[in-house]
């Protein structure tokens, strides 16, 4: 079998770029829901890295795939609770701008 | 691993097309002004990530990705947006005051991790991937990793109850 052109580095760089885009969204968005979906992008990058390591390092043990399943489950739970919190805050404040959430300041 | 027939490296072709789709749609998620458009681009991005999972011999994870992320999570986010009233949808996804600082930090993290990934010098062919990954995952998940599996099930139950409790309707005369 000839050496394939796509190696572990390609997947890791793709994961790094996707993580950077998600981090940019988390740091710079005003809307709380936009921050949640940017966190989803970051978790996707983590899953790509886990599966790439699973394929190229230990394909027999399936550790990466099983951890990716757990990451997906926890991400679903996080979105559920996060949206519930955002809806509760909106009900009190009629606003989901993250810069206006400053009750803990004083 | 995908076979290389016709002299064309199909793995490389698929990888570059899917990567371009992922990066462009992720940038559109961040840069759209309308948050509903952001979520729709997020669906595209997740489906392309599922394609990347297929090139990584993780068929079951690709299925889970499409069902859970592209299906359930995005629909849930769209429902959450619908429950939040907005007068102008075109201004729902703006940047906050730390745009340049956040951009600089994200660029720095991307370059550092990308450079470190580029420098790892992984060499050689990947080891052979076993067939029947779903059966192996099922056996491992219910034997060696059964405790995390049960903990995750408990976490999902707690999340369900907690989300209902947090988002439930509060009577106007009940608080304060």
Task: Give an overview in words.
The complex is a heterodimer of chains A (106) and B (176). Chain A has 106 residues and is mostly helical. Chain A has one domain: Orthogonal Bundle (Helix Hairpins), CATH 1.10.287.3510. Chain A is 73% helix and 0% strand. Chain A is built from 3 helices and no strands. In chain A, helix 2 runs antiparallel to helix 3. The mean pLDDT of chain A is 87. By secondary structure, chain B is an all-alpha fold. Chain B has 6 helices and no strands. The interface between A and B is large, with 75 and 87 residues.
Features:
heterodimer; A: 106 residues; Helix Hairpins; 0% strand; B: 176 residues; mainly alpha; 2 domains; globular
Rg of chain A is 18 Å
Given the C-alpha coordinates, what overall shape of chain B results?
A: globular
Secondary-structure class of chain A: mainly alpha
Distance between the termini of chain B: 62 Å
Globally, the shape of chain A reads elongated
Largest sheet of chain A: none
Structural class of chain B: mainly alpha
The CATH first-level class of the largest domain in chain B comes to: Mainly Alpha
Strand tally of chain B is: 0
Q: What's the main sheet of chain B like?
A: none
Termini gap of chain A: 65 Å
Q: How would you summarize this macromolecular structure in one to three sentences?
A:
Chain A has 106 residues and is mostly helical. Chain A has helices at 8-28, 32-56, 63-93.
Q: Which helices and strands, and how do they pair?
A:
The complex is a heterodimer of chains A (about 110) and B (about 180).
Chain A: H1 8-28, H2 32-56, H3 63-93
Helix pairs in contact in A: 1-2, 2-3
Chain B: H1 10-31, H2 35-55, H3 59-82, H4 99-118, H5 133-143, H6 146-167
Helix pairs in contact in B: 1-2, 2-3
């Amino acid at each position: 079998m000839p050496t394939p052109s796509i190696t572990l580095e390609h997947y890791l760089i793709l994961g790094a770029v996707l993580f950077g885009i998600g981090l940019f969204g988390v740091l710079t968005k005003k809307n709380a829901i936009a921050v949640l979906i940017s966190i989803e992008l970051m978790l996707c990058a983590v899953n790509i890295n886990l599966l790439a390591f699973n394929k190229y390092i230990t394909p027999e043990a399936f550790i990466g795939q099983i951890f990716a399943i757990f990451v997906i489950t926890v991400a679903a739970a996080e979105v559920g609770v996060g949206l519930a919190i955002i809806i509760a805050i909106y009900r009190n404040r009629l606003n989901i701008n993250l810069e206006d959430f400053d009750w803990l300041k004083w | 691993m995908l076979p290389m027939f016709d002299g064309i490296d199909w793995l490389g072709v698929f990888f570059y097309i899917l990567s371009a789709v992922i990066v462009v749609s992720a940038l559109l998620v961040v840069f759209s002004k309308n948050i509903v458009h952001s979520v729709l681009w997020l669906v595209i991005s997740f489906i392309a990530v599922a394609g990347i999972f297929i090139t990584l011999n993780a068929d079951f994870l690709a299925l889970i990705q499409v069902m859970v992320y592209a299906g359930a999570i995005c629909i849930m986010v769209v429902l959450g947006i619908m429950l939040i009233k907005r007068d102008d949808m075109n201004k729902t996804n703006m940047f906050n005051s730390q745009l340049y600082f956040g951009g600089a930090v994200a660029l720095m993290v991307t370059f550092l991790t990308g450079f470190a990934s580029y420098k790892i010098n992984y060499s050689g062919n990947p080891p052979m991937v076993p067939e029947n990954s779903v059966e192996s995952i099922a056996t491992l998940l219910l034997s060696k990793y059964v405790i995390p599996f049960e903990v995750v099930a408990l976490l999902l139950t707690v999340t369900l109850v907690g989300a209902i409790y947090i988002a439930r309707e509060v009577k106007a005369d009940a608080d304060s």
